[in-house]
Amino acid sequence: MEIKTCCFTGHRYLLKNQIPTIEAKVTEKIKKLIMQGTTHFITGGAIGFDTIAAQKILDLRNDYNKIKLILAIPCEDQADKWSDEDKVIYENIKNQADKVIYVSKKYEKDCMLKRNRFMVDNSNSIIGTWDGRKRGGTYYTLNYAKKLNREIILLDYRGQYL
């Protein structure tokens, strides 16, 4: 039986008043994918949308014990410059993840790109939130997923679509 996998892409910095809506929408989309047989979920381990997605997977594991959280982290020192609060959340997620994969040992200029490609290459679908900027990691990752003909589930975020 083929393992169905979904990855996530989105922005690090989200407006606080939009976070509850984003959390509700991502939870709804994850549940729908679970009902369609998706069991593995890959997130990049960054602050912002990645953290929201990872926390929702961890919450949903209580009701759907077959789902797995995989962290695809760009480099071992990813969180070195983060706030102490963000580091605590990150370590908590890492400790609860079913698998942690480091795409690069140390930070390199293309380690984020390699991480994003790894996630899409190993997924059937992608859930994303995008603010409409035609540059940056989220834009690139969504377009890479489109090029590989992955199912793209784009949350309504500021009314922007590919």
Your description of this structure?
There is one protein chain. Strand 1 (4-9), helix 1 (19-35) and strand 2 (38-43) form a beta-alpha-beta unit. The protein starts with a strand and ends in an 8-residue tail after the last strand. The chain has a 6-stranded parallel beta sheet. It has 5 helices and 6 strands. The model has no long low-confidence stretch (mean pLDDT 91). 40% of the residues lie in helices and 21% in strands. The chain has helices at residues 19-35, 49-60, 84-96, 111-121, 137-147; strands at 4-9, 38-43, 68-75, 99-104, 125-128, 151-154. The chain has a single domain, classed as Rossmann fold (3-Layer(aba) Sandwich), CATH 3.40.50. With 162 residues, the protein is an alpha/beta fold.
Secondary-structure map:
Blueprint: E1 4-9, H1 19-35, E2 38-43, H2 49-60, E3 68-75, H3 84-96, E4 99-104, H4 111-121, E5 125-128, H5 137-147, E6 151-154
Parallel strand pairs: 1-2, 1-5, 2-3, 3-4, 5-6
